[in-house]
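During the second year of the project, the team shifted from modelling isolated chains to modelling whole assemblies. The rationale, set out in the original proposal, was that interfaces cannot be judged from single-chain predictions alone. As a representative example for this report, we include one of the complexes processed in the last quarter. Its constituent sequences, exactly as entered into the pipeline, are reproduced here:
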Amino acid sequence: MSKNLQVELKNIFFELEGNEIFKNFSLRFSSKGISIILGPNGSGKTILTKIMKGIVNIDKGKVLIKKKNDIGYAPQQVVFLRRNVFDNIAFPLRVKGKRESYVKQRVNYLLTEFNIFDKKSFSARSLSAGNAQFISFVRSIVDDPNILILDEPCSNLDEIHRKKVELYLKRNKKKKKIIMITHDFLQAKRLADEIILIEKGKFLVKYNKQKFLKNEKNIIKDFFS
Amino acid sequence: MEILYQSFSLIFSFDPNLYEIIFLSLKVSLSALIISTILALPISAFVAIKNFYGKKVLKLFFNSLMALPPVFVGLILYILFSKSGPLGFFEILYTPSIMIVAQIIIILPIIISISIENLEMINKEYEDFFLMFNTKLKRRILTLLWDARFSLITCILSGLGRALSEVGAIIIVGGNIIHYTRVMTTTIALETSRGNLSLAMSLGIILIFIALLLNSVAFVLKNISIKNSYE
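Output from the structure prediction step:
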């Protein structure tokens, strides 16, 4: 792994319930900025994020990540503790043993910053799908991680919340590595510094933003055909 | 009807002998419950979270112990703790202490088995979540126990219900000694055989009242958890 790279997958093999998901899959992400992964349903995008986060173990290969304990992750399927919004956002900090005064200060800051302070005491599990996804995003950044992996973080969000997420990502992309899955081509165009296309567990191609915008029509046409 | 009237008179006359029996019952059963809960919950959480060799056998073992006949428990404890028994030097036979031990043996597997089921269900849901945040075992256990608190209270209450209604073991090891080891269930058994039905009935009514109270508490807690979406 080169000095600047933060995330790299080398010759990954992974089977799930007898189905081969990845066979000798390799991928290098740029060291900073936003990498968007695009691919049709069932192409292995979500499993890829789980592999990077260490939630699923690969059969063979290497997952090279600079600081494994410094990854923020917002999964596609949001899971909340049977607790209120504050405690759910605070959980990653408490797991890391941060002082309670810091936990309170940090979580309250984020709740205010993202304009969700009024939901602080709500039961997280009773939130709407959109609010749950937004809170899950806020939870993923609570520890200000160096690497951020987001699996369709805006799929249930309204315009206002989507803009808030995108604004945060744009503001932080120079100091973080952000890897994001989306099905929204327009969002990919707005945010991506590099776009990675995968299909059926195979890495197809990687574009930088200029190249992607230049060949956009052909890419989309090829991709969907 | 006459018996019922006399029973209620006994209850509302606050007869000291009657209330002594009730308080001893509660003391023994609550002590057994507290000790069993302290032992059972970490064991249940550990079994629910960890995958280890023999886990299924261990769960089967705890499940089987749920059906342990109390009379048999009493007999074994009697043999162990009688003067000539290997643990006779403790000198606790015919004391409330051995009654607590007997009740622990009876209710511990019940609390463990039911708790494991509840905790396994929540753990399955939280598995990825714990991995997401690199949660250590101790934190996992504490998180699970806290998040399952409402259903665990129901498990614990079922243990208390079992302890309070138990008679077979404590009558053997406690000896049903008046003012010392006589509790509600053993008194009911004794007084019924003596024909003192009003005292037996009044204790029966108290037992039913406690059972109703426990169920109501469990019901209210369940509703609180549903209302707050903590289910």
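Residues 7-224 of chain A form a domain with the Rossmann fold fold (CATH 3.40.50.300). Chain A has one domain: 7-224.
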